[in-house]
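Quick log. Single chain, no ligands specified.
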Amino acid sequence: MSDSTSPQTAEAQAEAFRMTYTKIRDEVRRMMVGQEDVIEGVLSAMLAGGHVLLEGVPGLGKTMLVRSLGEAINLDFSRIQFTPDMMPADIQGTSVLVDAGNGKQEVQFREGPLVANLVLADEINRATPKTQSALLEAMQEKQVTVGNRTIKLAEPYCVMATQNPVEQEGTYPLPEAQLDRFLFKLLVGYPKEEEYHEILNRTTSTDAIEIQHVSSGEEIVKLRETVRAVPVPDHVQAYAVQLVMATQPGSDYCPGMVGDFVAMGSSPRGAQSLLLAGKVKALLGERYAVSGDDVKAVALAALRHRVLLNFHGQSEGITPDQVISAVLDHVDVPQLYA
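-> predicted structure:
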């Protein structure tokens, strides 16, 4: 932990972090079958203070996962189903004329679904750029601006967005500036054969599963402070920097694959994501400082949406995950500084 924290206090905070993490994860597991990496990814991102982009075909439980997480933490939850005709006022809020009694009317502001703690942005790539920009303000600035009214969003604030990687008709691909605001991009795959049976047992019987409240927004805010207090050794920070630079064509650290197939690499936000997520990994592993292995473990989720392939890479069928794997093989953890 930080230098100002005593070893006893740091140990107690780390233990409380792990206990709460386990309670929330196990409660979500009561609803979700499989998808362990995705469950741990969304929970880790929330505790690191970041947003998540979930990519997968319909029917894999993305919406149920986010809703279950909100219920387990007892957060103010809202769901937005994005469509091409949706306007910014539909998600930010708008002024409406209401009956004030005595035959009079008055204008009142009605907050939109962006004003919540946990926002599920379903099929985010169906929204027009104007509406996506309204969401971007909420994600980055933690506020909503409507006319001359600015609404500060209460912490914890987290946006978890979904998109379908296959169906592209009638969609507006997210610009790189907005993709960069997501701490993680998680790929939601198909269940295993044995998981199908458990899914059917849970969803086609008379037994109803109710998620219990096992945490709170106030506790999440405290746990985020615990995450921030985890120290990062100089050589691990250097490793995170070099990994990010290795995704940038023409840098001193990039492998040949990056030069051949990448048009644009990660921004400094990629390094921030590596370290914040690495701090969560360290706490869960009962370590009190981030290691190179912690950074490496979160690299795919933290960087895959920050690597833009060029035309050559796309035509060759190269994926961002392949590029990042090549970067991880190419860049070694620097030795401890003297």
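The domain at 232-338 is CATH 1.10.8.80 (Helicase, Ruva Protein; domain 3).
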